Amino acid sequence: MMYLAPRQGLFAIIVLISFCLQTLLMVISVDHQLTKNLEQKGEQMLTQLIDESRLSLENKDRVSLSVIAGRYISEQDVARLEIKDNKGNVLVPVGNAPLQQGKTLSQLATNGNSVIGSVNLTLKDISKGEIIAMQWPFVIGSLIFHLLLWVAYGFVARPTQAQINALKNELKSLEDKVREKKEATLPKSQPKTGAQKSAILPSSDTHQELNAYLKSQQASPKLETAPTKAAPAESIKSQPTILTNKLSSSRSFDQVTVQIVFQDDHGMLKLLAPEARNPYFALCSQLLQQALFELLQLPLLQGVSVINEPTFKGSSAVVMLKADDSAAKVALAGVMLGKLYLMLNKIIYEKHVELDHFALHVKVGVSDNAQANAMAQLLARVGKKEQLLILLPSLGLKQIGNYVQLHSVSRPTNVYERECAVFDGGSIVMMETLSDLRNNVLLSGHEDELLG
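^ that's the sequence the OP posted. Answer follows.
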């Protein structure tokens, strides 16, 4: 049997990193050398150009300067050339520097002690790709060398047959010691026959007998300690097993309840006069109904319909959605509706506060119908303003898994809180869709009324 060298995959990663670093250092070194040579060449060209164009520069002869500059711009290393007079006016600009930026060298043109002009010479940047293309023999050779190094490690570090035999003997010795210790624990009156030695390891009959014994021992305490009657709220701590069954992640569902609750910590709704409270409730109801209408037009949510006509009463509103077929994403519809209303309410709240009108933050809970009461308790206990809580079975979480990110409730105190998740962000496509729907709702012909 052929054995691989230990950690050969890790060594391959190290070899790859070595090759990349070597190539990078080569590119940096060649780039530095070529840049230095190019700057020296550019300075020589500037000196030569000034000597040739001194007379034409004094006379500001643009034609002669253009002819002289044309010879230099034909150099492959030159990107742009500018010849200026003593006042800084450009006499001759040639080249395409905006497309090929590089280092610019400048030098004054003098005639005796007087400055007659200046020349700016822009050199092309050295392409890293060109460096690798020029040094391809080195790159290919380095790659082959590193591959040979990896192959050589595979042969050299591979365990020899002697090492393999020694390891097998060591493992066999360790197994014998373990067997002797187990045999020593048997009663002295029992003869240690070969059959008993083979029975030291547990058999399937032994496992069955052990399971039967454990079940018989566990049955009576459950009958003695199981409570006869308990309220759902109290069973959170006293009957976690029952709650786990109720919260089974595999439960089926075809309806989702979206609960929108005002964050009214100071009881402002009760103090608000009916002539102010009723119009505010009507506004929120209209906002919710318009958001629901726009949302259910999405092709993604085809097959999802609304059961009730949601309105705000007291301190909350409830929306009940159902799946008309098995492919309908009713859980995703509930989560999107909850997030959409949070986005809408944030704008309405800020606008009302700006106008010194009454407004409240909201929090939203999305759950299947079986856990609607539990979600109402969660919103009251752990829900925060502008927060979206989600309590769905695994099928519902699977529907929203590709669209949203969730995090758990911090420091949960019961099973409901452990099963509950908090909306922590959505995909780019989903958030853009919700932003468009928000704008459609606010610009649906009722924007003046919606915005106060």
